[in-house]
What we know:
Elements: E1 4-9, H1 13-24, E2 29-35, H2 38-48, E3 52-56, H3 64-74, E4 79-83, H4 87-99, E5 103-106, H5 112-118, H6 120-132, H7 153-156, E6 163-168, H8 172-180, E7 190-194, H9 200-211, E8 215-218, E9 229-232, E10 238-244, E11 247-253, H10 265-275, E12 280-284, H11 293-301, E13 305-309, H12 319-326, E14 331-333, H13 338-346
Parallel strand pairs: 1-2, 1-3, 3-4, 4-5, 6-7, 6-12, 7-9, 8-9, 12-13, 13-14
Antiparallel strand pairs: 10-11
Amino acid sequence: MKKIRVLVIDDSALMRQVLTSLLSSDPAIEVIGTAADPYIARDKIKELDPDVLTLDVEMPRMDGLTFLEKLMKGHPMPVVMVSTLTEAGCETTMRALELGAVDFFTKPKFDMREGMKAEAALLTELVKAAAQARVKPLKKSSSSNNPTYVLASSAMAKTTDTIIAIGASTGGTEALRDLLTTLPPDTPPIVITQHMPEKFTKLFADRLNTQCKITVKEAEDGDAVITGRALIAPGSYHMALTRSGARYQVVLNQDPLVNRHRPSVDVLFDSVAATAGKNALGVILTGMGNDGAAGMLKMNKAGAFTIAEDESSCVVFGMPKKAIEAGGVDKVVPLNEVAATMFKELNR
């Protein structure tokens, strides 16, 4: 089997050594070179033609974002960003995802070498997902051309109890942005699980809140689930839907990982199936692995209408594929048709 060929770009000699060692420990991955700055990296990309890059966010001579933007315009390829958990690092990483990075890996705060060893499985999984990713050239933002969806007045009463539940992973931050920015202010309540570490989810929600007509926020325990608002599960916490009388709300917990994730899409979808039943609509977007497939099947069996993103628009066609194979999906559509499909069902 052909190995995944990786170029490691980082200004720290220690980080280059640690990343090379960790990635090389996986028999499916070969580190074919390293570079201390983007100028060296540019030459090595031409010379070695790697399958995946790991790219440090902060580097001398040319910062990681500038390099990434140039790369995605001229020679798009799978990139995993290596970031710090600082606020500035989170900001830069979110921008990197907007520019086309497939995913990101956060450096441990303290003992770098030991901390990285503990995260080796995650790092190799991210690189393997990136190798499968469908990377597109960087396009100019066209949010002003977004179609407008309208909830029919006849559907207003029917949808007062309707919950939209969305799950996503690799490639999901941009897919969610593309989807949520098209939704009108009276969209039924939305609950979202996107695989992402703590700190990043709040920043992600806050960014979306400035770009969308609906309100978007990182969920807090006990938050009401209301029309015109999307709640995003915070990193490191599972989020579940509950009902108190006539009112839906979310509860958060730090129970064990499910499908190696916390937050887990299955935890959210299971709770929506049990709490909202047929008054729900489920959407599963791009992502690696199988999280959400079992939960979407439960939603579907409980009477919910379910949608999966199709392979043509997915960055990684993993989670939607597993959900389709499990038999829990009513409709498979490309990302740019998800909102229209949602509103067609809501307006029925």
